[in-house]
Amino acid sequence: MSSCKDAQLYEKTWRTAPQWSEDEMEHIKGEIEDYVPMRDVVGSEVRFPQVNILFIGPVGSGKSSFFNTVNSVFRGKVFNQARSGSGINSITTKFIKYPVLSSITKQPLNFRLCDTRGLEAKLPMSKENLKLLLEGHLPNRFQLEPSGSISSDTPGFIKYPNLEDQIHCVVFFIDATQVEAMPDLIPDVLQNLKDLQTVMNMIEIPQLVLLTKVDSVCKHVQTDISNVFRSPTVEHCVSKVAENLGLPRYAVLPMKNLENEVELNINVSILAMLNLRTILENADAFLFNKIDEIQEKYQKRD
């Protein structure tokens, strides 16, 4: 990407951009604070507990860092709860459902960000294990060996998961600095992702991509993250990732996590909230197809 890292910014944005202001950040954050799954469809008589968002991606692609960034926004300070790093092997070894606490009530918000072991060339995730994970058979903090054998006799295995145990949206994490060389640098990991997509497509789970480290591929974005939707370099990365994974461009969301910062950055916070809102909207789209089951099983009871 070095050849186009210095490309001049477009005069107009290539995607609708937010207002880069404190008011905009608080507005989107407030929408997420108030989020209740399917509220606009099922009304107040039905209460679905929370949606589960699964993070999948190569080692070092920024899965745990995104959770830490989101968590920091709601904490009001940089707060690194999930272990993150850039080693050769995955730091995350368990399937973990992370809650995010409301900045107002200090209670968990109505979604869980689910991290799992980073994909490695020599340690791919099997389609069978992913299917069990998506269907809700694996409990929180399950020690997940991606290719290991899992059966109904495995300790903690949930034989009859409810809809609330399942995964409602999957987010792939791709490092923007690796995009141009994806087919050559991580062909096994890319193939693993494509294999896993066949399972997600079968279950009809929405798929998005968080394109991380966009500040590392464009000097203008590195200087000011608000330039992200005017950067031809970032737009190029979005198009390449969409092509490689067979997804529409709108499903690829540029992101810059908090990494070196010791204080919150308003524009990073806005981008994180914007992407999280899109993720929750896609989870709701999945639940919309389960509306009859939700209305039947999740009626409020006094």
UniProtKB/TrEMBL annotation:
SUPFAM superfamilies: P-loop containing nucleoside triphosphate hydrolases (SSF52540). InterPro entries: P-loop_NTPase. This is Interferon-induced protein 44-like.
